[in-house]
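Support request from a user on the community tier.

User writes: "When I paste my C-alpha cells into the form, the page sometimes reloads and wipes my input. The last time it worked, I copied everything first. Here is what I submitted, just in case something in the input itself triggers the reload:"
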C-alpha cells in the first residue's frame, strides 16, 4: 500500500470531517437561538437540504473525478465547503442558513472521490482497511469536531473589527479549516488518474453503460440497500440526538459535543485499527451482520437512558453504536468498490455516497416529523424535561426499526451472495 498518498487523503478527510462534526451539536442550538428562532422541524429541514444537494451532485463529482482526476475535484469541493460554512456562520436570515448548507451540499460530496483515490492505491486485500481509514477519519472528526464546536461556542471573538458571537464561532472556524485543507491538498496530493488510467478512458469515451450494468447487479443492489438503511438510521440519530440530550438530560452544545467525541474515539479505534484485521479473519459480510445487530440494539436502548440511569449508561450505548457502525460501514463500502472494475470506481462510489445522501434526506425528515409531533404535543410553554418518555422514544425506536430491516437483509445477503461476491472479487 502506498503510504504517503494515503496519509494525505487521511488528513484531508479528517479535516473535512472535523468541519462536518462541528455542525452536529451546534446547528440545532444555532438555528433555535434568538437570532432565527426556528422550530425543531426547521433543524431537520436544514440537515435535509444539505443532503438533497449531495444526493444530486455526488455521483457527478465521482464521475468527474474519473475523467479529470481526483485532485482537482477534491480541491474545488473543499473551496465550496469553506464558502458554505462562512455563509452559515455570518448568516443574518433563515434563507442564508439554507444557502450555506446548499452550497456545502453541492460541493461537499467529496468522500466518494477520496474513496476512489483509496481504491486507486490499494489492493483488493487491503481495500476494506483503506476504506476503514476514511471511517477512522469520520470517527476522529466526531472526536474533535463536536468537541471543538462545543468549546468554541462558549467564546465570542472579534476579528478585524467583526464581532462573532460564540454560537457562530465554530461555523466560521470550520470555514477557515476547509480553506486551509484545500491549500494543503493543492500543494501535496499527487494525482492517481493518469491519462491511461481505466477510469479516465471509461469516462472520456462516455461509457456510462458499464456503470449502469454494475448498478444492475443484485449483489451491488443489496449492498446499496443495506447501506441506505444504515445511513437513514444514523442520520435520524445525529439530527435528533442534540435535542434528545437537551430534553432528557438538560445538556447544551458543549456537553453534547463531548458525548459525540467519546463515540468518535470508539469508532476511530474500530475503523482505524481493527477493521483490517477483522476483515482478514471473518470477511466483510459477517462484519456487516454483526454491525447491524449492534446498531439496532443500541438505537433501541438510547431512549431508555436518562437521569435515572446516569451518564455512564448513555456512554455505554454510544460505545455499542460506534462499534456497530465501525464494523459495518467500511465493510459495505469495500463490497461496493469490489463490485466494479477500476474504470468505474469514482462512479460507483459516487452512487454509493449519493445513496447515503438520499438517506440523509429521509432520516432527518423522519426525525423532524417525530420530534415536531412531540413538541406540539407538550407545547412550547413547558420545560424541556417535561417531554414524555414515549415522545422521546419514538424517534430512536423508528431508527431501530429501520436498522432491524437492514439486519435481516444483511443476513439474507450473507447467505445468498457470499460465493458470488468471492467470484466477482477474483474476476475484477
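"...and here is what came back when it finally went through:"
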Amino acid at each position: 500500500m502506498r503510504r504517503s498518498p494515503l496519509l494525505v487523503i487521511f488528513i484531508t478527510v479528517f479535516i473535512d470531517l472535523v468541519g462536518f462534526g462541528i455542525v452536529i451539536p451546534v446547528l440545532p442550538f444555532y438555528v433555535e437561538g434568538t437570532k432565527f428562532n426556528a422550530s425543531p422541524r426547521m433543524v431537520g429541514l436544514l440537515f435535509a437540504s444539505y443532503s438533497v444537494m449531495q444526493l444530486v451532485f455526488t455521483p457527478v463529482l465521482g464521475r468527474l473525478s474519473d475523467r479529470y482526476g481526483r485532485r482537482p475535484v477534491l480541491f474545488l469541493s473543499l473551496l465550496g465547503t469553506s464558502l458554505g460554512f462562512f455563509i452559515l456562520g455570518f448568516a443574518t436570515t433563515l434563507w442564508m442558513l439554507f444557502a450555506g448548507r446548499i452550497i456545502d451540499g453541492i460541493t461537499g460530496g467529496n468522500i466518494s472521490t477520496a474513496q476512489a483515490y483509496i481504491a486507486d492505491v490499494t489492493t483488493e486485500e487491503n481495500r476494506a482497511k483503506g476504506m476503514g481509514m476514511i471511517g477512522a477519519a469520520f470517527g476522529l472528526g466526531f472526536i474533535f469536531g463536536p468537541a471543538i464546536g462545543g468549546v468554541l461556542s462558549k467564546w465570542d471573538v472579534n476579528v478585524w473589527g467583526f464581532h462573532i458571537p460564540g454560537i457562530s464561532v465554530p461555523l466560521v472556524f470550520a470555514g477557515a479549516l476547509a480553506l486551509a485543507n484545500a491549500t494543503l491538498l493543492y500543494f501535496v496530493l499527487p494525482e492517481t488518474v493518469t491519462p491511461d488510467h481505466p477510469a479516465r478512458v471509461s469516462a472520456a469515451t462516455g461509457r456510462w453503460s458499464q456503470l449502469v450494468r454494475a448498478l444492475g447487479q443484485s449483489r451491488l443492489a443489496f449492498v446499496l440497500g443495506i447501506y441506505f438503511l444504515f445511513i437513514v438510521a444514523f442520520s435520524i440519530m445525529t439530527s435528533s440526538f442534540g435535542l434528545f440530550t437537551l430534553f432528557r438530560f438538560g445538556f447544551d452544545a458543549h456537553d453534547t459535543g463531548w458525548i459525540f467525541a467519546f463515540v468518535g474515539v470508539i469508532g476511530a479505534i474500530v475503523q482505524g485499527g481493527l477493521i483490517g484485521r477483522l476483515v482478514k479473519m471473518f470477511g466483510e459480510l459477517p462484519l456487516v451482520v454483526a454491525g447491524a445487530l449492534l446498531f439496532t440494539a443500541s438505537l433501541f436502548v438510547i431512549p431508555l437512558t436518562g437521569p435515572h440511569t446516569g451518564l455512564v449508561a448513555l456512554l455505554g450505548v454510544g460505545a455499542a453504536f460506534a462499534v456497530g457502525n465501525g464494523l459495518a460501514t467500511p465493510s459495505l463500502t469495500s463490497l461496493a468498490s469490489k463490485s466494479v472494475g477500476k474504470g468505474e470506481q469514482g462512479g460507483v462510489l459516487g452512487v454509493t455516497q449519493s445513496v447515503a445522501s438520499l438517506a440523509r434526506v429521509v432520516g432527518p425528515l423522519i426525525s423532524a416529523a417525530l420530534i415536531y409531533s412531540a413538541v406540539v404535543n407538550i407545547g412550547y410553554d413547558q420545560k424541556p424535561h417535561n417531554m414524555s418518555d414515549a415522545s422521546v422514544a419514538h424517534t430512536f425506536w423508528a431508527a431501530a426499526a429501520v436498522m432491524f430491516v437492514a439486519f435481516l437483509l444483511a443476513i439474507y445477503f450473507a447467505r445468498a451472495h457470499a460465493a458470488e461476491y468471492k467470484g466477482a472479487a477474483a474476476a475484477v
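Agent notes: The reload is a front-end session timeout and is unrelated to the input. The longest helix spans residues 389-427. DSSP finds 15 helices and two strands in the chain. Escalated to web team.
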